[in-house]
């Protein structure tokens, strides 16, 4: 009965649309499924939000045949198809697929009483290819061909109404690419899964092509790197004259293949290193000599991965200072500065839990570091106290394994702030408790204190704190 009530609610929810909003929108947005225009779900416009195509939930239910449920109280959308269950929450980027947390580039949102959901993410999870023509405002949904069909030709989608979804094991076997970086003539690709890179050198023009079979981009990827709705993107490289740029795309969906291309201004040799078990780092090193470089150990790139976490974000402002400044903004400013500095280190890779003013659950922050099997996790915060006199710098650890890191980080942090040394302390904070690597939480100063607040929002103090974090990280990791 509860389910019936839920569906009723869902129907009501879909039907209640403010009058007068339909006409203009319907003219400018079209949605095609395997070349056939879909007629329903267009009374609320398709939107392009931060390069995510957002479509009415009703479209998913009515046209793709997925089972859709809506919980008004928790603002949760549940989508089921072929044994796979997905839950998305309005205004939250954290979603779950079969109980596993994933981070969306754009959270579901409400428009005129209708829920809009990111079609690329949902379609991809259920095996669809999703394309968006921004000029014509057309969404193209393409169902996959049946993998073991007897005939290789054709690919006609026949009766139109049903959606073909690949078997579950095929969908689950995909490697997920979480991020890339380019430093010191090395391209680093972070991913989860078992894909093995196929790397080749191509001339005219010179380039290196890296194909990752059975792989796609995770939604974490889009939060850190440029990725358009067609799953194409570019990494701008400015500091390495031999490299003109790096392109990447979901090159094929049958079979799934992600392709990276390093565009070169001159022919270069390379070496490939793969480290890690399920969470892997693939390094394409352009420093290799033609005779073979012996300075790198096979199977271990020797590079360290640091996850930096700017506390709070978006609706969660964190502490509010005496003059009304938000902790979340301080945290992010310091993290971005530290990341810039770390990117110049050739033995350290850096991943941010957030790089803009977005909201992330604590468990998702820890999950990012754990999934990547990061070497270190550092969370930046500013403190607040009921007593306006409280002032100074603290560093927190929760697990014994994090104590040594806390001591090193604190030594540099206190020097940088010049505020009173309130010591290395035990603190039962989620992100440093639930992470599996050495993890610390820095409370740089007190926003409830007038002097601390003023100091923390100066560029020079933020630069000093960022530099102190890099010094602490390098000393702890033994990186020169
Ligand atoms: Zn905080």
UniProtKB/TrEMBL annotation:
**Known CDD domains for this protein?**
MurNAc-LAA
Query: For this protein, what is any one GO molecular function term?
Result: N-acetylmuramoyl-L-alanine amidase activity
Keywords recorded for this protein, A-Z: Hydrolase, Signal
Q: Which organism is it from?
A: Paenibacillus borealis
Checking Pfam families in the record gives:
Amidase_3 (PF01520), AMIN (PF11741), Cu_amine_oxidN1 (PF07833)
Location of the MurNAc-LAA domain: 366-474
Signal peptide range: 1-26
The GO annotation for biological process reads: peptidoglycan catabolic process
- Know the name of this protein? N-acetylmuramoyl-L-alanine amidase
Gene Ontology CC annotations of this record: outer membrane-bounded periplasmic space
């Amino acid at each position: 009965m509860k389910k019936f009530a839920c569906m009723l609610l869902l129907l009501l929810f879909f039907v209640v649309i403010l009058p007068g909003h339909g006409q203009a929108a319907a003219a400018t947005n079209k949605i095609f499924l395997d070349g056939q225009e879909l007629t329903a779900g267009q009374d609320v416009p398709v939107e392009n939000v931060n390069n995510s195509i957002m479509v009415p939930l009703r479209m998913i239910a009515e046209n793709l045949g997925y089972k859709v449920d809506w919980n008004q109280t928790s603002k949760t959308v549940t989508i089921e198809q072929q044994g796979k269950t997905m839950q998305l929450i309005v205004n939250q980027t954290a979603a779950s697929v079969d109980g596993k947390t994933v981070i969306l580039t754009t959270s579901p949102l409400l428009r005129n009483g209708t829920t809009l959901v990111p079609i690329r993410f949902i379609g991809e999870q259920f095996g669809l290819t999703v394309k968006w023509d921004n000029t014509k405002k057309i969404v193209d949904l393409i169902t996959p061909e049946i993998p073991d069909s007897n005939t290789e030709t054709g690919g006609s989608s026949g009766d139109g109404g049903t959606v073909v979804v690949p078997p579950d094991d095929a969908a689950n076997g995909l490697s997920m690419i979480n991020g890339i970086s380019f430093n010191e003539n090395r391209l680093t690709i972070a991913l989860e899964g078992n894909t093995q890179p196929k790397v080749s050198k191509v001339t005219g023009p010179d380039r290196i092509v890296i194909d990752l079979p059975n792989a796609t981009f995770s939604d974490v990827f889009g939060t850190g790197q440029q990725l358009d709705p067609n799953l194409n993107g570019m990494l701008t490289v400015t500091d390495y004259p031999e490299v003109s740029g790096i392109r990447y795309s979901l090159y094929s969906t049958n079979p799934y293949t992600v392709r990276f291309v390093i565009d070169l201004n001159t022919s270069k040799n390379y070496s490939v290193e793969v480290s890690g078990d399920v969470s892997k780092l693939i390094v394409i090193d352009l420093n290799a000599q033609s005779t073979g470089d012996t300075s790198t150990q096979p199977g271990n790139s020797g590079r360290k991965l640091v996850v930096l976490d700017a506390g709070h974000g978006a609706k969660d402002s964190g502490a509010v200072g005496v003059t009304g400044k938000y902790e979340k903004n301080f945290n992010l400013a310091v993290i971005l500065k530290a990341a810039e500095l770390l990117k110049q280190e050739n033995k350290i890779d850096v991943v941010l839990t957030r790089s803009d003013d977005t909201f992330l659950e604590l468990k998702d922050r820890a999950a990012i570091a754990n999934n990547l099997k990061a070497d270190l996790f550092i969370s930046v915060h500013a403190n607040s106290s009921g007593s306006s006199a409280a002032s100074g710098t603290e560093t927190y650890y929760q697990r014994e394994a994090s104590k040594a890191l806390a001591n090193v980080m604190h030594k540099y942090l206190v020097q940088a702030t010049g505020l009173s040394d309130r010591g290395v302390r035990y603190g039962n904070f989620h992100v440093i408790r639930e992470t599996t690597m050495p993890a610390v939480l820095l409370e740089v100063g007190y926003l409830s204190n007038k002097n601390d607040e003023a100091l923390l929002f100066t560029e020079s103090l933020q630069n000093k704190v960022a530099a102190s974090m890099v010094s602490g990280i390098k000393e702890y990791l033994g990186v020169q």
